[in-house]
Amino acid sequence: MASHAPAHLPTESRSPTLRSLLSFFSDGPGNHKSESVTVAKGDESVQGQFPRPSAGHLFGNVTAVAKVIWAFTKDDLFTATLPNAIFSITAAFADVHLRGTSGPAFSRVFARLPLTYFFSFYALLIFHLGNQRPRDGSVAEGRLNNNKPSGKTITTPEQIRRAYLILLPITLALNHFLGVWHEGLMIHLMTFIYNDLGGGNEPFVRDIILGISFGYINSASLKIALTTTSSSPHGHTWTWLNLVSVLIATTIGCQEFKNHKNHRHPQGHQEGSGNDKTMKRKKALAIFLGEAAVPRAHLALMMPLWTLVCAWFWRLEISVAASFLLYSLFVASRVLTQRSAGAEERTWKFWARWTIVIYLFPIVAVLSA
């Protein structure tokens, strides 16, 4: 079927804009097969090359996007995204109670749980994409290299860069739609400081940046949850938000456990040898210090301490606070004693559950009242 292309169409036209769109999530910049067509108009003949947008290729692009998103969010769905959403809902419940709002407001707050979860999901996704965005031809912290399944690589650095390029303006538009434009910009700023300015490479600065980032994510989620009830949170709720940000900054080191490899000590030391006692002392010291940026003893101390502080903040009954304290002591004991790779990964998950326990304090206080 003849096409009516203009006679001045240049030879070997590549249609770069369309080719770029079709190959947006491929490994290379538009190197797909194309077919040559001849267009007749009067006595002139125009020959050019146009991309061939097959249905399979378009489906492959969508699949590539889904793989990029899944690769960066699968570990956070229940260990970071869900706790953030729970924080916003429980804090919003407490805020409604502090303001003396009538009962129906609680149902409206709970109905916004999917929106708060969705915001936390894409906010963490953008943070991870910025973290893994290739700089100087390499992946920043090797998240995909550490967590990729055996056999086939899920994504490439070029796909990460292009996914970040297209998802960044989409998240900005979503922030505007959800009414959290300011918080969203601050999250992007923290991502820039963490990745491009090297803040993530500084041991203590890293934890501060992550604490502030989670604070803005929680603040935006809380704002989304309270959209139908009030313009701004109660003062006690704001204090709780800041308290949780400091809590995250001082315990976020537990996230390093999911990437730790089992520590192997040198072989050849026999029982009763001269160096045996020295090796035992080194092992005991390693249990308390560890290889993380934050010593294990510090992390183990912070969890029961924060449990007591947060229980006091919400005026929980002693028996209720004691049960929560027992769980924090259990997690702290794992931080100090469990050293194998699989055990440390489970400890990280226990830490995530501990944050959920802390985030439930407001709703426990409301129910007790």
UniProtKB/TrEMBL annotation:
Presence of the UniProt keyword Acyltransferase in the record:
no
The answer to whether UniProt assigns keyword Transmembrane to this entry is yes
The organism is Pseudoneurospora amorphoporcata
Protein name stated in the entry:
Digeranylgeranylglyceryl phosphate synthase
Q: Which residues cross the membrane?
A: 109-129, 163-181, 284-306, 312-330, 350-368
* Keywords recorded for this protein, A-Z: Membrane, Transmembrane, Transmembrane helix
Which N-terminal residues, if any, form the signal peptide? none
